Amino acid sequence: MEQRISLITLGVADLEASRSFYERLGWRRSVEKAEGVAFYQAGIVLALYPRQSLSEDLGMALSGAANAPLTLALNVRSRIEVDRVLEEAVAAGARLLKRAADAPWGGYVGYFADPDGFAWEVAWNPHFPLDAQGRIQLPE
């Protein structure tokens, strides 16, 4: 697994209120046509996503520090790499939260938890190309 974080997703109580807050701070939204989520290019990518949707994606309730409504994400270059990284994480002591599967938005995603229970998403997203260093380049 490459040593990098591609994306941090905050599970927010009210997507529109949170989106408005970040935009009042002067942050410019990327991928404006994406529905049900807000993305911001911020060195890495910050995503705001409804807490209930994040809970459904993970397949578990979100409460307490180890199950905070937040995920760290590693975006990879292929579907095969998603499976490989999940296997690597489990071999290193991670707990598989959700096997990789096709996502409704056209990608391929799985989740694991580190030893403290923090959730990691491993994703291949054909709509978010990666540069040579593995950083997401959000479309406008």
Structure description:
This protein has about 140 residues and is α+β, with helices and mostly antiparallel strands. It has one domain: Roll (2,3-Dihydroxybiphenyl 1,2-Dioxygenase, domain 1). The chain has helices at about 15-25, 50-60, 80-90; strands at about 5-10, 30, 40, 45-50, 70-75, 95-100, 110-115, 120-125. It has an 8-stranded mixed β-sheet with strand order 2-3-4-1-5-8-7-6. The longest helix is centred in the middle third of the chain and has 13 residues, at about 80-90. The chain starts with 6 loop residues before the first strand and ends in a 16-residue tail after the last strand.
What are the SSEs and their pairings?
Blueprint: E1 7-12, H1 15-24, E2 29-30, E3 38-42, E4 44-50, H2 51-58, E5 70-76, H3 79-91, E6 95-102, E7 108-113, E8 119-124
Parallel strand pairs: 1-4, 5-8
Antiparallel strand pairs: 1-5, 2-3, 3-4, 6-7, 7-8
Order of helices and strands: EHEEEHEHEEE
* Count of individual helical segments: 3
What is the distance, rounded to the nearest whole angstrom, between the alpha carbons of the first and last residues? 28 Å
Mean of the pLDDT scores?
88
CATH topology: the name is 2,3-Dihydroxybiphenyl 1,2-Dioxygenase, domain 1
The count of strands amounts to: 8
CATH class: Alpha Beta
Q: What labels would you give this structure?
A:
22% helix, 2,3-Dihydroxybiphenyl 1,2-Dioxygenase, domain 1, 3 helices, 140 residues
